[in-house]
Amino acid sequence: MPLLRPTCLAALATLLVSACTTSPGARPEAPADSWAVAVPAINRPEGETAAWWFRAGAAQAAERGAMAGNARNVILFVGDGMSLTTVAAARILAGQRAGQPGEEHRLSWEHFPATALSRTYNTDLQTPDSAGTMTAMATGAKARAGVISVGQAPLRGDCAGGRDHALLSLWELAAASGLRTGVVTTARLTHATPAATFAHSPDRNWERDNETPATAREAGCRDIASQLVDPALGRGADVLMGGGRHNFLPVTQPDPEYPRQSGKRNDGRDLVAEWQRAHPTGTYAWNAAQLSAAPMDAPLLALFEPDHMRFEHDRAGDAGGEPSLADMTRATIERLQVQSTQGYVLLVEAARIDHAHHYGNAHRALVDTMALSDAVQAAVELTSADDTLVMVTADHSHTLTFAGYPARGNPILDKVRGFADEDAPAGEYALDATGRPYTTLGYANGPGNTGASASQSAGPKRFLHPGKGFKPATGRPELTDVDTRHPDYMQEALVPLASESHGGDDVGVWARGPGSAAVRGSIEQNALFHLMVQATPRLRDALCERGLCNAQGVPVELPDPADFKAR
Ligand SMILES: [Zn+2]
């Protein structure tokens, strides 16, 4: 006789006796047993392989009922480095900017019906990086840190091993199945997260030719930029939008927006021109005005900055005019809707939440999170929950902390105020044990450490602070007269590091649309791929047609990319 769970005891009180006592684990919305996937027990970590991760991820999605989904389109939003603390702080900032106390506000995805927690570790790293984590979400198999859609067997940087263990991505699967695809990011398009859609590389840093070792190039390994415009499998993305122009252009070519800069490729290739030759009807855009003028019914390549795009906080100052993440999301969905007859798969990455955290600047991280909320809202308004699965998640966490006892409505970027005790009457700053005020938000490590550094004296740091040459901080800074709500204020960081680090804690997953009911519980990050594939009949059928499904039609075998050349 199983012990009654506390929820059952509550249910007993409301006379729902039979539903509770006869099957404590029953989930009426998910006929899970029929899709159960057997996963072999292995010694961990030695027994882990890409094939094992793929099957284990399939089992998690299937047991939650993802196979019941009937999605036509899938949109995956990734807030890079968007920890749960970042979500909570950003929702408050958004609410406060709207004139509310803030805590009750909801970011757009916080209205979604389904949530889960995603466990983000890489196969070789407790606190993961974006390459391994996006590989997990894009291919259904966890991977090492630093690799782009490559299984865990070869070491990072192993060219031949990377080729032998390339993993099929969700975007390659979609393109090979007659769906249209899009990739949108605020980072360089060649950066880890967008790269994992259509490129395969044993090292995330091989973004252009002269960042790829000569030995690897001679052995046939191609840089990420060249793979994005000329993918190994099939047609590639129908819409590509982001930054990173200099990785696509030769050193001899001046940049259109910043004439004193030029492309950075040494091999003489102009990948924009190559893309245009391969897409004679397509449009290339490098600023917002060109994006607005581009036709809807043709492929699009847009590269809005030589490097990463601007932080949303700084975007208005861009010389050439940059679209917002919501603008890019809207422009992409509208095109994919016009161009697709069978559906589409889209990645939208808010990449610079992560960068702002690395810089130790919570303001820019929160504002970029709000920009992601606007982008998700745009997708919600342009699509139907009847046919489009929208999933929002992060690849990994950061060390942002949300602490102290600020009063309801206290400005989230301010010092803690309003917890009345003998040290701090209501409405005045709360004081630490040495009598100094402190902010609600802080970082466990990073360039915001208040020790003297090579570029700024001891005390609070201002963005942009390289964080080199730290001497240990002696005591806390006096913040009484410091404007911690200024966009360039850097939150205090306990441990001095030039770049604040990722965090190893779980991140959230929020979902709406067909198959979203399966997004629940505590899942491994690679199960997200399976949740998306199992919820989309055309994608799961494409895998079954190649003999990769079990008797119940659940894709359980690791695909070989060679079997998915364009049809
Ligand atoms: Zn990062």
Automatic annotation (TrEMBL):
Gene Ontology molecular function, alphabetical: alkaline phosphatase activity
Protein name from the UniProt record: Alkaline phosphatase
UniProtKB keywords: Hydrolase, Phosphoprotein, Signal
Signal found in the keyword field: yes
Enzyme Commission code(s) on record: 3.1.3.1
Stored InterPro entries: Alkaline_phosphatase, Alkaline_phosphatase_core_sf
UniProt keyword Hydrolase, yes or no: yes
Family the entry assigns: Belongs to the alkaline phosphatase family.
Pfam families: Alk_phosphatase (PF00245)
Lineage: Bacteria, Pseudomonadati, Pseudomonadota, Gammaproteobacteria, Lysobacterales
Region of interest: Disordered: 247-266
Residues in the signal sequence: 1-19
